């Protein structure tokens, strides 16, 4: 039983919901018939045999038979699941109409069930399929079931067919409007996405350095301001990094090679950065790194690793020669401003330069 009520993996969520709804309606219908059985047995015992044959035996057999056949097809034909759901609704409607008395007011309206179900797929072809299959099942009931074939006026049958056509036209109109709304929604989403991408591109253009991909001077100043304002209870360090003898690289190998050196050093800084470590290109061959979550010893170790990794870089454009960097860093002290922080780090950098380059000073 559990396997029976477990949907096939290929069945969409919506179709599975409809499938379970059909099972629920069937069980409710059976429960209603069984409750009616008691009333018929008490009030009209002479009608009980006919009631048992028509409503209990035939109706329940047809309903369960339809459900079981549909379940088998679900597991065999995943591509037909939408049409099976619509056809199943048509079968339920035909069973209900065939086993109901024509004297029951409005019973024919049950035939629009598959058309209503088809609307939810928002597909013209499925609505037309629902109309076609409903017309066939309605004609079958009107032709095969004796009470409808002989006792139901032709005018009423014509009204039934006309009603199905009207409902189908209304369904097509609803689908058309729904598809139009979805197209408008998609266009709006595309426009919004395009706008976001444009904003992101504009933000990146204004905040990133085009050559290295690091944050630019303007963004560095904003980061510095925020770090100093928010860094009362945590250590703030600033490192200023300079590529040694960069002018000689440009003069010897050309500015294109100089750009390659900047890109590779920038990429190294970007790849080694992490949360609380913010590298930027300050300008020319100088870079800055803001540290917001590390003590002085950890900052010095991280910078030493960067110095060593930079020295290991090789440049085919420079006959496999390497470049070195000099670094100065300073920890923000109580009462110091961001300008003082930068001046002290820059002063330490010049000390590294004067001391022979390719080293760290603080």
List the helices and strands and how they pair.
Elements: H1 13-43, H2 48-76, H3 81-98, H4 113-119, H5 124-144, H6 146-151, H7 154-207, H8 217-230, E1 237-243, H9 246-253, H10 255-272, E2 277-283, E3 286-291, H11 296-312, E4 325-331, H12 338-354, E5 360-361
Parallel strand pairs: 4-5
Antiparallel strand pairs: 1-3, 1-4, 2-3
Helix pairs in contact: 1-2, 1-3, 2-3, 3-4, 3-5, 4-5, 4-7, 5-7, 9-10
Please describe what this structure looks like.
The chain is an alpha+beta fold and 362 residues long. 66% of the residues lie in helices and 8% in strands. It is built from twelve helices and five strands. It has helices at residues 13-43, 48-76, 81-98, 113-119, 124-144, 146-151, 154-207, 217-230, 246-253, 255-272, 296-312, 338-354; strands spanning 237-243, 277-283, 286-291, 325-331, 360-361. It has a five-stranded mixed beta sheet, with helices on both faces. Helix 12 links the parallel strand 4 and strand 5. Helix 2 (48-76) runs antiparallel to helix 3 (81-98). The longest helix has 54 residues, at 154-207. The chain is rod-shaped and about 115 Å long. The chain starts with 12 loop residues before the first helix and ends with a strand. The model has no long low-confidence stretch (mean pLDDT 85).
């Amino acid at each position: 039983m559990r396997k029976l009520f477990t949907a096939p993996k290929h069945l969409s969520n919506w179709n599975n919901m409809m499938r379970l709804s059909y099972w629920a309606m069937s069980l409710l219908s059976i429960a209603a018939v069984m409750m009616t059985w008691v009333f018929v047995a008490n009030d009209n015992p002479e009608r009980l045999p006919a009631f048992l044959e028509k409503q209990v035996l035939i109706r329940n057999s047809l309903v369960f038979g339809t459900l079981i056949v549909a379940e088998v097809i679900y597991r065999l034909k995943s591509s037909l699941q939408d049409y099976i759901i619509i056809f199943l609704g048509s079968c339920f409607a035909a069973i209900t109409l065939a086993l109901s008395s024509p004297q029951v007011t409005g019973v024919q309206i049950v035939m629009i069930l598959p058309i209503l179900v088809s609307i939810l797929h928002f597909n013209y072809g499925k609505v037309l399929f629902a109309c076609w299959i409903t017309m066939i099942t309605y004609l079958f009931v009107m032709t095969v079931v004796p009470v409808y074939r002989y006792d139901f006026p032709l005018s009423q049958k014509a009204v039934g067919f006309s009603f199905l056509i009207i409902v189908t036209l209304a369904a097509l109109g609803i689908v058309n409007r729904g598809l139009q709304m979805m197209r408008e929604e998609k266009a709006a989403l595309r426009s919004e996405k395009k706008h976001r991408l444009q904003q992101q591109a504009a933000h990146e253009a204004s905040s990133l350095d085009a050559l290295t991909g690091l944050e630019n001077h303007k963004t560095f100043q904003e980061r510095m301001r925020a770090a100093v304002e928010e860094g009362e209870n945590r250590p703030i360090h600033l490192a200023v990094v300079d590529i040694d003898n960069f002018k000689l690289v440009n003069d010897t190998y050309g500015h294109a090679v100089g750009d390659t050196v900047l890109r590779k050093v920038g990429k190294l800084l970007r790849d080694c950065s992490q949360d609380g470590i913010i590298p930027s290109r300050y300008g020319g061959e100088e870079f800055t790194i803001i540290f917001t979550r590390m003590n002085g010893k950890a900052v010095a170790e991280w910078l030493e690793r960067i110095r060593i990794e930079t020295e290991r870089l090789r440049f085919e454009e420079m006959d496999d020669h390497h470049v070195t960097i000099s670094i100065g860093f300073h920890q923000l002290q109580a009462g110091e401003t961001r300008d003082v922080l930068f001046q002290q780090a820059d002063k330490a950098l010049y000390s590294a330069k004067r001391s022979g380059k390719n080293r760290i000073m603080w």
